Amino acid sequence: MTQTKVGIIGATGYAGEELVRILLNHPNVTLAAISSVSFEGKKLSEVYPSLYQICDMALTNEDTVIAQSDVIFASLPHGLCEALAKKAVGQGKKFIDLGADFRLKDEADYQQWYGLEYKEKELHTHSCYCIPELHRERLGKDISIIGNPGCYPTSIALGMAPIAKSGLADLNTLVIDSKSGVTGAGRGLSQTTHYPDCNEAFSPYKTAVHRHTPEIEQTLSELSGEPVRVTFVPHLLPVNRGIVSTMYVTLKEGASKETVRALYESAYQNEKFVRVLPDGDTANLKHVKFSNYCDISLHFDSRTNRLIVVSTIDNMVKGAAGQAVQNMNLLCGFEEDAGLCLVPPAF
Ligand SMILES: NC(=O)C1=CN([C@@H]2O[C@H](COP(=O)(O)OP(=O)(O)OC[C@H]3O[C@@H](n4cnc5c(N)ncnc54)[C@H](OP(=O)(O)O)[C@@H]3O)[C@@H](O)[C@H]2O)C=CC1
Ligand SMILES: CC(=O)N[C@@H](CCC(=O)OP(=O)(O)O)C(=O)O
């Protein structure tokens, strides 16, 4: 079988390196080229010694990655991907952006939350925001660019989708309390991710002003068919990987514990990567680390008539590189789980 050539722009970042880890074991693809600005000419294994004798490929530049690959993953800071996607699509390639440049439908949201504009508006008509379990039918033949979802929004959308679609909860009462491991902040050094600052510390940040808010609201509004506004509070958790999102929403009349559980079980019964846990269990980030799974547990506060959903993912896998590979699999017609059968270690 012919192998599809894939390349990574920004392979030296955390999400880029995670893509390498997954793509090296993918049955349908060959890693053709990887790039970096700061480390161009060096081997990737010099930047990440865990890859010594596994991926000693030299880092090249963006244009070489585009020229040598059929599918290009870009894992870069926001604002750089429209220009790269234009070049890639112009050469007949497919482009998957792990950042936010193709996530938001409404340019006004991108302007407000990212302070940037869409310079290549036409490109957005060939792009698609895709959480595979919710949007895979969007990936028609006209789609050549994927806006890979953000890490927090992935955990939240999967955790809320069945109840949001059902109309059995008042989504405008939704409060989302999320915690992310420190790899979520990327490889660059900062005061908040400096070891003495984040170790043994725990605190919210960007309370109710995080840039993932419009992405979360976009998905929940589409699912429910009405405008949704949520309160979203992320926290920095002093672990390397993992996201726990705990979501609190008021149920409407007629939404019993049994009805809601049935909704979730039915929505995800054929979804390999979403596990609805049995009644009484609680989702834990330890059980999804290094894997593409999203675990969901359901809890009911009968005194306040609130549903509490806990959703956990590995921010680097289902929250970034794993979901990007799942999207490539759909775009290229591979088995959806190809390269993604990663069993989470028990400890
Ligand atoms: N970390 C996570 O959990 C998640 C990350 N993402 C997204 O993935 C993308 C990458 O994030 P992450 O890996 O965490 O970030 P990192 O900071 O770890 O890596 C950033 C990468 O971008 C490259 N880069 C930085 N500035 C430029 C520039 N001006 N031009 C070209 N390349 C540049 C760096 O390469 P070099 O310095 O070698 O040139 C590096 O490879 C972001 O869009 C992020 O939003 C999405 C979901 C989750
Ligand atoms: C812990 C931490 O800092 N997390 C990052 C979000 C993760 C991410 O990379 O999101 P994007 O893909 O939208 O950039 C943050 O809060 O900015």
Can you describe what's shown?
With 347 residues, the protein is α/β, with parallel strands linked by helices. The protein has two domains: 4-149 and 318-332, 3-Layer(aba) Sandwich (Rossmann fold), CATH 3.40.50; 152-315, Dihydrodipicolinate Reductase, domain 2, CATH 3.30.360. Helix content is 30%, strand content 22%. The protein is built from eleven helices and 14 strands. The strands form two sheets. It has a seven-stranded parallel sheet, sandwiched between helices. It has a seven-stranded mixed sheet with strand order 9-10-8-11-14-13-12. It starts with a strand and ends in a 15-residue tail after the last helix. Bound molecules: NADPH dihydro-nicotinamide-adenine-dinucleotide phosphate and N-acetyl-L-glutamyl 5-phosphate (X2W). GO terms for molecular function: N-acetyl-gamma-glutamyl-phosphate reductase activity; NAD binding; NADP+ binding.
Number of domains: 2
Major beta-sheet overview = 7 strands, parallel
What structural class do you assign from the helix and strand content? Answer: alpha/beta
Low-confidence stretches: none
Give the CATH level 1 class of the largest domain: Alpha Beta
**Cα shape:** globular
Ligand species? NADPH dihydro-nicotinamide-adenine-dinucleotide phosphate, N-acetyl-L-glutamyl 5-phosphate
CATH superfamily of the largest domain: Dihydrodipicolinate Reductase, domain 2
